[in-house]
Structures are given as structure tokens and as C-alpha cells.
Amino acid sequence: WRVSGVAPAARFITARASQVGRAERERKMQRPKEDFRAPGRSGGRNTSDNVLMPTNSARASEIDGRTGKTSEQRRQLQMSKTPLELMCHLRSAVTQDLIDASVFAAAMQRCGQGRWWDALEEVRTLQIVAHIAASPIQRNIYLTALARCVKGHEDGAQVVPSRQRELLRLGSEAWGSAGPAPDADTLNSLLGAAWNLCIVAREAAALQWAEELWSWVQGQRFELNTVTHHTFVVVLETYNLQERVDNFLSEAAHGAAVPAPNVVLLGALVNAAAERRQWQRAEELWSRIVSGHAVEPHAIQYAARAKAHLLSGRPHDIVHIAAEALAKGIQLNTSLAENYVQSCLVLYHSSLAHADLVRLDAAIEIAGPVWKQCNQEGKKLKPALQAVDALRRHPSSVALRDVLLGWNARRSALAELPPAACRAGMGYLSEGGPGAA
Q: What are the tens digits of pLDDT across the range 215-241?
């Protein structure tokens, strides 16, 4: 399948599947067909309608500042394996005067794919020094790359606070760096990128900017598409504006002129509630969208639901959620597999009961092939096996913190339990969550 234009902000730059995050690929492949557009070509064996935004048009060169002489430079930048390699290619292009806005756009997109924050800012500085004006498309790509780079690891899990604090300033500065969006596609790309940045920033000023953009776009001649409209709804849930989200869902249920919720919105809203440790809200959204709108969840949505319970310190519920997904024939993805094993591991640490050990072994047996398939044996499977082995051999020496393996577990309510009350075998977990059994 094609990954061209895989994110709304990445038009006219082709992203290879290996350069697009696993979770992002899952989300894009779950989008309804109506969210996608024809790529702008007619005929030929490469014709496809599986792109979120057109990847070619009669105005492509005009819109993204592209010239024919820089195609090799864009290819080299997109194929770069490290920030150092990328910057070497970019500096060489500058020296040879083989640069235009699309070259810097390609460099920025590659930085976003690799989450290379320092390189991204170096690319931006180099463009300013070279006096190359930003194109509307490049601005969109830069905003998207900024938001991606806040999460400083390839798997996109852990936020780097120092980057997050700079996000809104850099994003708002970039907003005015290029001219107005020339068409509906570019406008939707721009707003989607900006609102996603506001989601990642998680500060009051970001919500204010998002609201200002919402008011501003009401007076524009181009309409919002489903993807962009849903992104703003996620902004509202991120900042706990539940009533407005509920109003949107009610309007959609009654046939109002708003885009109906889909499986991608379900996962995003549940994840937003998860980040606030509001598992009740996550379950409410799940019920309203799955039952009320007949949306069929997949592994990535079940993973978001499990995350809500993990961050709230409710491992028993994660076991039930994973069992529900498996009963429906859903193959676990790496995130859901991790949540499943993590919950079984901490439950066994709490009880040291044989039945919980059997359940943990079964969870690892299910998760192991998933991790192997994604080349995550060393990162996911090995630590889990080591923790189980330590608990079997010397349970009294294994603290709760030693069995909280992932970033989400280490920032969950479980990590805040008093160590003295959470020794192995003390039964410190009740069915409802942290506390005395």
C-alpha cells in the first residue's frame, strides 16, 4: 500500500513505510475510505486513491516551492538514516545552490519521522540563513515535525518536557512564516497540523490558540474535512472540555452537519481521557461511540482503552479488556500486548499466586510473537522475561518499581503507591485498583 501523504501535513513529499511509525500506519489504514483523496494522477500502474491528501496536482510546484533540479537532493534527505547524514546532505545542497522550499520541507519531514529535534531546528535555521522563503506546504510539514519531535524516541512514547515547553512558541512563529493556504487541502493540512501541535503542547495558551484558529476558520471560504474537524474535537477532549465533545457526538448521532465519529476518533478521544487518568470518561466515550455510533474498534483502540486503566492503576480491568479483544479475534498490537503483559506482571507481583503466574505466562506467550514480528524482543520481551524470572527466584528482592517496565507504567498511579506497602506477595491490589485487597 502507498504511504504517500500519510499525514495531512505531508503533501507532495513521499514517505516510505519504513519511515512512518507503526502506530501511525495502523491509524491511517483504519481510516474510512471517504477520508482519502485521489492522488492527482490519472492512469498508469501507480494510480491509487489511498492517500489522505493529493500528492500531485497541476499547481504542485507553485504550492510547495519545488523545482525539477532538486529531486536528487530531496531523495537523499528522505533516505538519511541519521541526523548527521541528513545535515551533511543538506549543507552540500546549500553549498551547490541546489535548494528550494521543497528541499527544506523534505529535510523537516525526515526529522519528524526520526524525531530529530535538534536537527529540525538546525534545518529551520539553515533555511533562514539561506533566505529561502517557506511555502505553505513546508509550513505544514514543519508544524507536524515539531509535534512529532516532542516525543523523543523512535516509538513515540515518552515526551521530552524541555521540547514540549518550546512547542507552542515555535509553532506560532511558524504560522506566519508562509502565505495563506491556496486551497482547501492545504488549509486542512495547516489546521490539522496546528491543532495536533496544541494537543501535544498541553498548556492553556495552546488551547487559546486552538480556539482562535477555530473562530478564524469559520470565516474562510474553504470547508473543514472530516480528519481536520475530528482533530479539533480531540483538542477539546484533551483540555477536558467534555460538554462540547458530548455535544458534537450528540449532533452527529442526530444527523447534524458534522462528520460522524469513526474508529480513529474513538482511539484519539479515549487516549485523551487516558492521559488525564480519567478511566471513567474513557469508558463513557467508548460506550457512546462503539454502541451509539456502531463503530467497530480494532487493536489500537483497545490499546488506548487499556492505557486509560493502566495510567489509573487498574490492572484487573486491562486483563478483561485484552480478553475481550482476543475473544473477538483481534490480534494484539505491540501496545496492547505490552499493557496486557504489564497488568498480568504487576498482578502476579501483588499476589505471588500460582494462578496469576499461569495467567502471566499465557500473556507472554501471546505477546511474544507480536513483539518478535515488530523486532521488539530486546525492548519488550526480554525485560518481561527477566522480571518473571526474578520474581520466581527471589520475590522478596523485587520491588514494585522493578516490574513497572514501560513508560506508561512508570508514570501511572501504580508508581505512586508507597513502596513499603507494595512488597511482593502483600496483595496490595484490589479488583478496583490500587489499595488494600
A: 999 988 889 999 999 999 999 999 999
Tell me: pLDDT of 25 over 80. no
- Whether 357 contacts 389, CB under 8 Å: no
pLDDT at 78 over 70: yes
pLDDT band, residue 157 (cuts 50/70/90):
low
Question: What would the grid cell of residue 296 be?
Answer: 467497530
- Using the predicted structure, report yes or no on whether residue 382 has a pLDDT greater than 60: yes
Could you tell me if 195 and 160 are in contact, meaning their C-beta atoms sit under 8 angstroms apart? no
**Confidence band of 437 (pLDDT split at 50, 70, 90):** very low
